[in-house]
């Protein structure tokens, strides 16, 4: 139990190259999650992120079984999930049921693939809960290339996407391609989710992609301020989760989730106090 608060050991571990690389990865993931998060929340896509992460897990499990790179497998699985969810759920009334069907199927196939995988058990566990040693320069290069692509596409479509997220009916009447933007955004979310699987794990990547943004939306209605706060909260959760996980050697996702939850509770209390004061 004492190792959970061994600051000397934590400082020693922070000097290791693979830990420093993981911290850089956490910063990139925090930026991605922070920027995409408010749009995910405004579009009610939290369940979609969970479904996408399960398909990213399935892709990673398939890559693990076939001896391929886990990051590439997770990325392929997430993109396929985003396209499938976008094409099968054209009506909002069908969206949750389609996600539930795809999620259950993907999770079942992924578990079956892990059963057939005869390699190290740590690889299986890390795919589900994240692991700091899963970062290498090949996965880092993939991360940076995908992150740059996501930010580039988002910079082009952000204004019409925000318009379509806030008021889709008016946006459609103004000639904004709402359906096409939804599909593109789903792919962007899928890519970002897949990138988080190796660090945070497939089961709890939702904590990084949604919780910081949900906390930010509790204290502000401004899209700009919500994005800034979401980025800040996501960075604190991702970087703080890695640092706290070093000494005990515990899964990163547990600490990322805990930090995100504490931030959300504080923002919820602040938002509620403001509402009571105004009332």
TrEMBL record:
<dbReference type="GO" id="GO:0055085">
    <property type="term" value="P:transmembrane transport"/>
</dbReference>
<dbReference type="InterPro" id="IPR001626">
    <property type="entry name" value="ABC_TroCD"/>
</dbReference>
<keyword id="KW-0067">ATP-binding</keyword>
<feature type="transmembrane region" description="Helical">
    <location>
        <begin position="97"/>
        <end position="117"/>
    </location>
</feature>
<dbReference type="GO" id="GO:0004386">
    <property type="term" value="F:helicase activity"/>
</dbReference>
<feature type="transmembrane region" description="Helical">
    <location>
        <begin position="228"/>
        <end position="246"/>
    </location>
</feature>
<dbReference type="InterPro" id="IPR037294">
    <property type="entry name" value="ABC_BtuC-like"/>
</dbReference>
<comment type="similarity">
    <text>Belongs to the ABC-3 integral membrane protein family.</text>
</comment>
<keyword id="KW-0472">Membrane</keyword>
<keyword id="KW-1133">Transmembrane helix</keyword>
<feature type="transmembrane region" description="Helical">
    <location>
        <begin position="61"/>
        <end position="85"/>
    </location>
</feature>
<feature type="transmembrane region" description="Helical">
    <location>
        <begin position="137"/>
        <end position="158"/>
    </location>
</feature>
<keyword id="KW-0547">Nucleotide-binding</keyword>
<feature type="transmembrane region" description="Helical">
    <location>
        <begin position="252"/>
        <end position="271"/>
    </location>
</feature>
<keyword id="KW-0813">Transport</keyword>
<keyword id="KW-0378">Hydrolase</keyword>
<keyword id="KW-0812">Transmembrane</keyword>
<protein>
    <submittedName>
        <fullName>Helicase</fullName>
    </submittedName>
</protein>
<feature type="transmembrane region" description="Helical">
    <location>
        <begin position="178"/>
        <end position="197"/>
    </location>
</feature>
<dbReference type="Pfam" id="PF00950">
    <property type="entry name" value="ABC-3"/>
</dbReference>
<keyword id="KW-0347">Helicase</keyword>
<dbReference type="GO" id="GO:0043190">
    <property type="term" value="C:ATP-binding cassette (ABC) transporter complex"/>
</dbReference>
<feature type="transmembrane region" description="Helical">
    <location>
        <begin position="21"/>
        <end position="41"/>
    </location>
</feature>
């Amino acid at each position: 139990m004492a190792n959970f608060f061994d600051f000397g050991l934590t400082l020693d571990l922070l000097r290791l190259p693979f830990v420093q690389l993981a911290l850089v990865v956490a910063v990139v993931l925090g930026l991605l999650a922070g920027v995409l998060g408010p749009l995910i929340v405004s579009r009610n896509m939290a369940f979609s992120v969970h479904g996408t992460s399960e398909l990213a897990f399935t892709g990673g499990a398939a890559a693990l079984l076939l001896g391929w790179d886990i990051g590439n497998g997770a990325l392929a699985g997430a993109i396929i999930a985003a396209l499938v969810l976008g094409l099968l759920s054209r009506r909002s009334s069908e969206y949750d049921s389609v996600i539930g069907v795809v999620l259950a199927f993907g999770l079942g196939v992924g578990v079956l693939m892990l059963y057939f995988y005869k390699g190290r058990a740590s690889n299986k566990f890390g795919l589900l809960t994240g692991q700091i040693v899963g970062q290498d320069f090949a996965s880092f290069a993939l991360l940076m290339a995908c992150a740059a692509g996501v930010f580039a596409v988002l910079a082009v479509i952000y204004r019409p996407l925000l318009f379509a997220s806030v008021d889709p009916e008016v946006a459609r009447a103004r000639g904004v391609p709402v359906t096409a933007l939804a599909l593109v955004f789903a792919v962007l979310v899928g890519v970002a989710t897949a990138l988080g699987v190796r660090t945070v794990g497939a089961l709890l990547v939702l904590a990084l992609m949604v919780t910081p943004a949900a906390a930010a939306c509790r204290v502000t209605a401004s899209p700009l301020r919500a994005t800034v706060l979401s980025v800040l909260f996501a960075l604190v959760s991702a970087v703080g989760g890695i640092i706290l996980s070093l000494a005990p050697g515990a899964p990163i996702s547990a600490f990322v989730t805990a930090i995100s939850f504490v931030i959300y509770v504080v923002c919820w209390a602040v938002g509620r106090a403001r509402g009571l004061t105004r009332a």
